[in-house]
Amino acid sequence: MSLPLDGLVVVAFEQAVAAPMCTRNLGDLGARVIKIEHPRGGDFTREFDDVVNGMSSMFVWINRNKESLSLDARTPEGAAVLDRLLPKADIVVQNFAPGAARRLGVDAETLVERFPRLIAVDISGYGVGGPYDHKRAYDLLVQSEAGSCSITGTPGAPAKPGIAVADVGTGLYAFSSILAALYQREKSGQGAAIAISLFDVITDLMGFALQYTMATGEERPPNGLSSPAVAPYGGYPTSDGKTVVLGTTNDAEWQRLCLQVLDRPDLAADERYRRNVDRCKDRATLDAAITSWARQRTLAEIQQIADDAGIGNGTYNEVRDVIDHPQLHQRGRWVDIESPAGTLRELLSPPIVSGWDQRTDAVPAVGQHTDAILTELGYDASAIGSLHASGVV
Q1: CB-based contacts of 116: which residues, under 8 Å, 6+ apart?
Q2: What is the DSSP string of 112-172?
Q3: What is the DSSP letter of 312?
Q4: CA distance 101 to 109
Q5: Complete DSSP assignment for 182-223
Q6: How far apart (Å, rounded) are the C-alpha atoms in residues 172 and 223?
Q7: pLDDT, tens digit, for every residue of 200-243?
Q8: Given this model, what pLDDT does residue 136 score?
Q9: How far apart are CA 325 and CA 302, in angstroms?
Q10: Is there a contact between 316 and 294 (Cβ–Cβ < 8 Å)?
C-alpha cells in the first residue's frame, strides 16, 4: 500500500527546528520534500555539532526523507529556478526571519494568490501585527516570553524544558493544519494560506496555567519533577539507588495508593487529604510519607506493587537509559537510516498504521539533489554548470 501523501510535492524554505519538524512528518507520510538550502553552508543546524559520524545530531533528527536543493534565491537566476519549481508544489513551508519571505515573494499570501490550489505556511516567532512581529524568535526566547520557563524548574530556579517545545509544537501544529487544508482542498479545490507562530503555540499550550491564574489571581510555583495540579505525583528514591515516579490523578487512585501500596489506612481516612485540591496544599507531608516507604524497597518491588494496585508508575531515566529501553527494542522502533556520513540509527515516526510501511529515506548532504532537480526542471548540463560556477547553486 502506498503512503497517504505519495505524489505530493513540498518545497521547504526551512532551517532550525519548527519547519523541518513539520516537513519531516510530511515526508514520513510519503510526500516528496525539496529542502531549499543556501549553497554556502545550508541549514545552520548542520553545524550545531558533529557527533553523529561528523553530522549534527539536531539536523539528523528532523531531516530524513528529504532532497536538498542548494539555491541562492536572492539572485535573479535563483528566482528563475523558483519560478520553475513552485508551480510543481502542492505545499510550501517557510520559516524565514521576519520580512524575508515577503521580500522573496514566497510568503503564504503571495504564493496562494499566484497558485490558488497551493497550501502555503508561514512560520514566524510572534505572528503578523502587534509590537513583537519584527522580532527574531528562538525557542528559549519565546518560551521565556510566553511564561513556560516560569512553570518549569523549582521556585527561584526557572528552567527551559529540555525539549524545544515551542519549535516542536509549532512544527506539529503546522503539520496538522496542512493535513486539514489538504482535506479541504479535496472538497473545494482551493488551497490555503496558513500562518502559525511559536508564541501563539506556546501560549496555547500554557492554557491550563493561564486559566488557573486568571481564575485565582495566583501563580502555582513550579515544583521540579512533579505537577502543580495533582498530588501526590513525583519521583521518590528507592533502596537500590533508583528513582521511582508515582502518580495519582484522582481521589479513587489516592485511596488505592494509601490502602494497597503504602498500607496507610490512616492517610486514606484523613479528611485533610480526601480531595486533590486539599492534597496539593500539603504536598510536602504526603511526599515525605511516600519517600520513607520507597526508601525501604527496590525499584522493581515498588513497581510490582503499584502495577498490582493499578497505580501509575515509571522510572526516572537518563538519556542513555532510553536508548536501550526495552519498550523501543522489543517493538522494533529503531531503524537504520542512510546519510552522507554512513548508516545511522533513528526512531520510526510515532504513528503506526496497518498497511503503511514507514518511510526511511536518507538524510541529505547540502545540495545533494541539486543537479537532479535542475535537470527535472529543464536545465541542461551547460546551464547547470553555469549556475554552479556563479554560486547560485
Answers
A1: 190, 191
A2: HHH-TT-EEEEEESS-SSSTTTTS---HHHHHHHHTGGGGSEETTEE---SS-HHHHHHHH
A3: E
A4: 10
A5: HHHHHHHS--EEEEEEHHHHHHHHTHHHHHHHHHHS--PPP-
A6: 27
A7: 999 999 999 999 999 999 998 898 988 888 999 999 999 999 99
A8: 86
A9: 19
A10: no
Q: Is 48 helix (H, G, I), strand (E, B) or coil?
A: coil
**pLDDT interval class at 1 (50, 70, 90):** low
| 174 vs 120: CA distance, rounded Å | 10
- Residue (of 101, 78, 1, 28) closest to 10 by Cα position: 28
**Angstrom distance (rounded) from CA 51 to CA 190:** 44
Residue 201: how many other CB atoms lie within 10 Å: 24
Residues 6+ apart with CB under 8 A from 352: none
With CA atoms as reference, report the closest residue to 279 among 305, 289, 87: 289
d(CA 74, CA 40): 13
Does residue 313 sit in helix, strand or coil?
strand
How far is the CA of 326 from the CAs of 170, 323, 333, 334, in angstroms? 30, 9, 10, 11
3-state secondary structure (DSSP) of residue 35: strand
DSSP state for residue 52 in the 8-state scheme: B
d(CA 105, CA 183): 26
Over residues 181-206, the pLDDT tens digits come to: 999 999 999 999 999 999 999 999 99
The two beta strands, 9-13 and 91-94, are parallel
Q: 3-class DSSP state for residue 173?
A: helix
- Grid cell of 139 as nine digits: 525557542
Structural contact between residues 261 and 306, judged by C-beta atoms closer than 8 angstroms: yes
Q: Is 316 helix (H, G, I), strand (E, B) or coil?
A: coil
Measure the CA angle with vertex 46, ends 202 and 172; round to 5°. 30
pLDDT tens for residues 54-92?
999 999 999 999 999 999 999 999 999 999 999 999 999
Identify the DSSP state of 107: S
For Cα atoms 327, 52, 339, give the angle at the middle one, nearest 5 degrees.
90
3-state DSSP call for residue 351? coil
How far, in Å, CA of 313 to CA of 302, rounded?
A: 9
Distances in Å between the alpha carbon of 235 and those of 19, 160, 223, 225?
35, 19, 11, 6
Instruction: Report the DSSP beta bridge partners of residue 157.
Output: 154
DSSP state of 5: T
Q: Over pLDDT 90: what percentage of the chain?
A: 91
